[in-house]
Amino acid sequence: MSTTRAANPILHLLARLGAAVLGTFAAVGRLTLFTLSTFRHILTPPFYSREFFHALMNVGYLSLPVVGLTALFTGGALALQIYAGGARFSAEQVVPQIVALGVVRELGPVMVGLMMAARVTSSIAAEIATMKVTEQIDALVTLSTNPMKYLAAPRVLAGLLTVPFLVAVGDTVGVFGGWFVSIKSLDFNSATYLKNTIDFLEMPDIVSSLVKGAAFGVIATLMGCYFGMNSGRGAQGVGQATKSSVVAAAVLILAANFLLTQAFFAA
Amino acid sequence: MITLTDVHKSFGAKQILRGVNLTVERGESCVIIGGSGTGKSVMLKCILGLVTPDRGTITVDGEEVTASGDRDAFLARFGMLFQGSALFDSLPVWQNVAFRLLRGSLKRPRHEAREIAIEKLRRVGLSPDVADQFPAELSGGMQKRVGLARAIAADPEIIFFDEPTTGLDPIMAGVINELIREIVVEMGATALTITHDMTSVRAIADKVAMLHGGKIRWHGPVAQLDVAEDPYLTQFITGSAHGPIETVR
């Protein structure tokens, strides 16, 4: 083998490249099938309402504090940056409009999506991977319960439905953060700031934000379920599954954000 | 009756089962023994359909397990006690025991399912106040008992026990062995147990099968275990480091 490598280094490189490409296609195929299977289970009975309610609480309600805090600081920092940057060409007065646009169109959904990847994807992946390692998934099957329907479907549906609400909260708190910093530190008039914000935002801005939220919610929960269900053995397997799920969710959220922004706003 | 005919299973290049032939009669308690990594758990999972064999057939009362029938009804005939109990951490004990009775084809009203769970807990020697505790709050022995209660909750016809005494002290192991024997006799269920523990074998088994090299090496009544002349079986039951079974795997 080593002789072949030495004799044909280019062939060896091509073989490795080919294997990597095939591996990537296989992974995409597996993930696609997993996604289709999850949505089939979301749409067909039986429905596990208790598991769905539990997932709603975990994905949505319990994420509110982290989403609120992240959005508050981001909105405040954005106001300071735009004021300082705008001052270079005497455009300080555009702070309300740019904060509103930046938070609602981009930073709100992306920050919430990344917070979901950190908080929800990791927790789902670690929980399901541990269930796999401790044979709880096998136990579900022997108890006549489909793990996709019991574990994946309620979580992904909860992500789809709750993350747009979280994004709406994040957008509102982010704009509030910008308003607060602007009137306290930058001498803006409160009423004028709010009027400029409301007048400037349009319905497509808000719709795009919520659609992004739904897409990011699905990605975050789906990645947790996929990597959890396909985890390796032992503690190392659980750790690897958790890490991979967060990385995959974060990358896919940013990629989806680009595609959705292009779909909504590229003229 | 469970019948395995020429069952093969490999994982990658590693051949685990190389033609297993075994019959377990209805109402019989059969114990599978064999060294670690010989494929005992894989065999059990093949019967349940958790793992698909590469070759061979497995039938339960004449019905092939891989046949596309009513999977829910098929699995409803089985109960299983897992090696690590495999209790659901997020559910209280009674919901673990009554899991099958709270959903699917065997669904009962919630209060009825809880009553059955408490009755099954009592049957395995646990008091009703354990019902509302979570699995993480219980000792290993108590978790095994809860796992046993869950396995028998829906009165299955066939019960599988995967290493039922692993990790337990000898007294608790004895208690679990006794419980298994009593429950199997009382329910008239067919039982298939895999274990390394020879005390368990003698307490639970009607018949014993030894799995070695991916095949059933010896199969016979428990009474013949000590008089059998198979050198592999003798080495295994005496726990000797010397004999035909390689000690370095």
From TrEMBL, chain A:
Keyword check for Cell wall biogenesis/degradation: no
Membrane topology (UniProt): Multi-pass membrane protein
Compartments, record wording: Cell inner membrane; Membrane
Alphabetized InterPro entries for the sequence: ABC_MlaE_roteobac, Permease_MalE
Residue ranges of the TM segments: 12-39, 59-80, 156-181, 206-226, 246-265
Pfam families: MlaE
GO molecular function, one term: phospholipid transporter activity
Gene Ontology cellular-component annotations: ATP-binding cassette (ABC) transporter complex
Keywords recorded for this protein, A-Z: Cell inner membrane, Cell membrane, Membrane, Transmembrane, Transmembrane helix, Transport
Family membership noted in the UniProt record: Belongs to the MlaE permease family.
PANTHER family, sorted: ABC TRANSPORTER PERMEASE PROTEIN-RELATED (PTHR30188), PROTEIN TRIGALACTOSYLDIACYLGLYCEROL 1, CHLOROPLASTIC (PTHR30188:SF4)
Alphabetical list of NCBIfam families matching this protein: MlaE family lipid ABC transporter permease subunit
Cited function: Could be part of an ABC transporter complex.
Name of the protein in question: Phospholipid/cholesterol/gamma-HCH transport system permease protein
UniProtKB/TrEMBL annotation, chain B:
Keywords recorded for this protein, A-Z: ATP-binding, Nucleotide-binding, Transport
InterPro entries in UniProt: AAA+_ATPase (IPR003593), ABC_transporter-like_ATP-bd (IPR003439), ABC_transporter-like_CS (IPR017871), P-loop_NTPase (IPR027417)
Source taxonomy: Bacteria, Pseudomonadati, Pseudomonadota, Alphaproteobacteria, Rhodobacterales
Keyword Repressor attributed: no
Organism: Celeribacter baekdonensis
Domain ABC transporter: 2-238
Superkingdom of this protein's organism: Bacteria
Any Pfam family hit: ABC_tran
Molecular function, one GO term: ATP binding
Protein name: Phospholipid/cholesterol/gamma-HCH transport system ATP-binding protein
